[in-house]
Amino acid sequence: MRLRRIALLLGPALIGLSLLSPGPSSAAPDSSSAAPGPALPQGTQSDDAYAASPAANAVRNVQATSALVSCYRPEVPYGANSGPAEGYSGMTPCPASGATTGEDTGAAGPYPSQAGSNPGYPAAGPMLVKGHSESDLRIDPTDPNHLIGASKWVASAEGYNHLLGFFESFDGGRSWPVQGHIPGYEGWTDNTDPVGAFDTWGNYYSLLLPYQFSYDPDGSHDFNPGTAQEPDPAVPSQVISLSVRPHGATTASRWTSTHAGHPDYVATYDSVGNGPDKQWIAIDTNPASPHLNRVYAMWVDFHSKTAVPYVSYADARPDGTHTDWSAPQALPEPPSTPQGATYLLPHVAPDGSVYTTLTNSDPAHRFCCDTVLLDASRDGGRTWSTVSTLPGTITPPPGSYANTTFRDGIEDTFALGSRPVNGHYPLYVAYEDYATGVVNVLMTASYDGGASWSTPVRVNDNTAAVDEFQPNLATGPDGTVSVAFYDRRLACPAAGTAEARAAGLALDTANPKHPGAPYGAANYCADTSAQFYDPALNPIGHNLRLSAHSFDPQLDAPVEGSNTFIGDYFGNAVGDATAYTTSVTTYDDGTNPGHLQQQQVTAVAVPRR
Description:
Blueprint: H1 2-10, H2 47-56, E1 60-63, E2 71-72, E3 127-128, E4 135-139, E5 147-156, E6 161-169, E7 178-181, E8 190-192, E9 196-198, E10 204-211, E11 214-215, E12 221-222, E13 238-245, E14 258-259, E15 262-263, E16 265-269, E17 276-283, E18 294-303, E19 306-315, E20 329-330, E21 347-348, E22 354-360, E23 371-377, E24 385-389, E25 412-416, E26 427-433, E27 440-446, E28 457-458, E29 468-475, E30 481-487, H3 498-503, E31 527-533, E32 539-545, E33 559-560, E34 563-564, E35 571-574, E36 578-585, E37 598-605
Antiparallel strand pairs: 1-37, 2-3, 4-5, 5-6, 6-7, 8-10, 9-10, 10-13, 11-12, 13-16, 14-15, 17-18, 18-19, 19-20, 21-22, 22-23, 23-24, 25-26, 26-27, 27-28, 29-30, 30-31, 31-32, 33-34, 35-36, 36-37
């Protein structure tokens, strides 16, 4: 939540600024002048071939989050309704028929964490969950057909008002019969940044970021009201915390959110001078590791513009409980990165070594140029060292994307191979780069423990210069590498077509960057794609279109200042035989007539060379 963090620490006047733009304007340069990029080993493919690839590869799609009605009682109500333009419809009370998830909606009274709320809070009753942006997806190591996804559970897109929710499958992603908000932290305004991991016993650990804010009369967010004026002064302003879904749970409310008799806090912060953000989790599930089932939690705390990265760990137990969290310790950074680094993405090698990348932006030079660092621990997280800095710099994406208002999030992704190559477990980094005037996905690898890195290659194989963004890496048990990303190579559907009606393009009438509905617009609508590689980064075929239909990213998008939001990342997981993603769509497949942000889960057989 990059802009939330900047607004929190630098003041509301900066909320609408495109601080991540390499220049004074957030508008994308003319793509016709884009310079040649890095090598593309698989070569380009035609748009027609790409559009036909889901059917050719038997890709399976399902809108997981449109299956059930979910409701919860928000801590802070929000009354604005910007609809029907852009598909907005405000915050809506739960239907009289109630939720169909079986979750605790708060209808019987406030949740336990809301007991200390100030007058006017929480909301008078349960509200309907509408949007589902940003996501994570994990496969249960004890059962390859058991999947848990997580996403933002949005009650008001206009107010960026949400908790975290989950959706669960027991049949390899074909159906998602259990879902709802993740309970235990309803006393905060928002709960954000979905990420989870399984231990070897099949318990699912969700690392959370609950935080408080209230609304000023003009509808803007007030992140610094002072403790006494916070919506719920009885709880800390901002926390890194945990909820565990025990193995065998079958109901929406079966979560454990306490430890040793109190909320399961990893770290707590007040609202003055702090901005915890971008938490991530990894669990050591390697049988030969001396730290089997150790849980690693990482996050950053922003002090003004300086990010300080932290790690804490605990040991999981078979019943879904865990030992006490270790005292948070700051991760090391080279002296050349005084501004601090963020985007921590821990992974554990089969020998128990823990690696994470850290991304350093340069606020002193208008966030012009990013570098990626690699840290490692060989003793279960007790001590850490910086292994290397990846060669070169990255040109970050603009503050919001061309032709549209949605902004970007985590610009790089990290994964670790499960099988050694030349005695080392491969390390992979993929990232967005805006050097050519559009965003491309580039990728590099290390086969010597991070000491050196390969020359970056381009991942996206489109022919026209359009934006390809938000890569997410995953590796399979056999070493297969998947890079999933959002893809804008296909034009939006043409006016008068059934595809345009199902995409809801007629609702898209209030975009300040594009007059009128975007029928036939280029570099506008989006799909989900993946490129597969063998462990040596030899491409397996071309980019595969995973979504059966393009979606309009303007519809039902949560609002952050002058920008909108489809997520900072989305889920990608590779099993023994099947690769999965979960990503945003606003397309109506027959279950989404309001063109709300839903989570679309795709499944495809893992390709082999």
